[in-house]
Design brief:
Helices cover 33% and strands 22% of the residues. It is α+β, with helices and mostly antiparallel strands. The protein has a domain at 61-141 and 155-181: Jelly Rolls (Sandwich).
Length: 182
C-alpha cells in the first residue's frame, strides 16, 4: 500500500491503479470478476453485501462443474473453499466406520455449501457428493480468510453469513438424529 499505516498520518493515499478497486490492491478488476460480480449480486446468500465485498468474492471465484457421483469435497480433507450451487443437487453425507454414509442434507440451486474453510482447523466435516450434474461457483477460502483479516467489515459479514450456514447444518444433523430414533 502507498499510504502510511500510521492512523494519525494525514497524507492522502495514491489513487488505485486502473482496474484495481480502491482499498483492495490484491484484487484487480477483470472481465472475469465483472462477470462473477453480476452473477453474485442475485444470490440470496450475498444479499445486501457491500460492492467492495462482492468484488473480493468475485476475484476469488471460479466455475466448477461436477458429474453425478463426483465429490466436491470429502470429510477430513483440508477445507479451502466454499460453493454457491447454480444447478444440480448435492448430498451432504456423514460417515460411521464401515457403514454406508448417512445423508444429512440435500442441497440445490441457490444454496451454499462449505463453511469449514472459515473455522479452524479448516477440515471438511461432511462429504459433498453430486447426485446429478452440478454447476457451482467455488471461492478460494484461503485467500478470503486473508481478506477477512485485512478488512474486518468483510470478515464480520462472512462470519455472520457462514454462521447461518453452520446453524442450518446443525439443525439438519439434529433432524437426522431424531429420524434415527424412530
Amino acid at each position: 500500500m502507498n499510504a502510511s499505516s500510521d492512523p494519525t498520518d494525514s497524507t492522502p493515499a495514491a489513487p488505485a491503479p486502473a482496474g484495481v478497486v480502491a482499498g483492495s490492491h490484491e484484487f484487480p478488476e477483470t472481465d472475469s470478476t465483472r462477470e462473477f460480480t453480476r452473477v453474485l449480486v442475485g444470490h440470496p446468500f450475498l444479499n445486501d453485501l457491500a460492492p467492495q465485498h462482492l468484488q473480493y468474492l468475485a476475484a476469488s471465484a471460479v466455475w466448477v462443474r461436477c458429474r453425478a457421483e463426483e465429490f466436491l469435497f470429502r470429510e477430513g480433507e483440508p477445507a479451502n473453499r466454499f460453493y454457491l450451487i447454480q444447478s444440480g443437487r448435492v448430498a451432504l453425507e456423514a460417515h460411521l466406520r464401515d457403514e454406508a454414509p448417512v445423508e444429512v442434507q440435500l442441497m440445490g440451486a441457490g444454496e451454499v455449501i462449505g463453511w469449514s474453510w472459515l473455522f479452524p482447523p479448516c477440515h471438511w466435516n461432511f462429504d459433498a457428493r453430486a447426485l446429478e450434474p452440478v454447476t457451482a461457483i467455488s471461492f478460494f477460502g484461503t485467500r478470503l480468510r486473508e481478506q477477512c483479516d485485512q478488512d474486518h467489515d468483510f470478515g464480520y459479514e462472512m462470519m455472520r453469513r457462514m454462521t447461518h450456514v453452520v446453524i442450518e447444518r446443525l439443525q439438519a444433523t439434529r433432524r437426522q438424529l431424531l429420524e434415527c430414533r424412530r
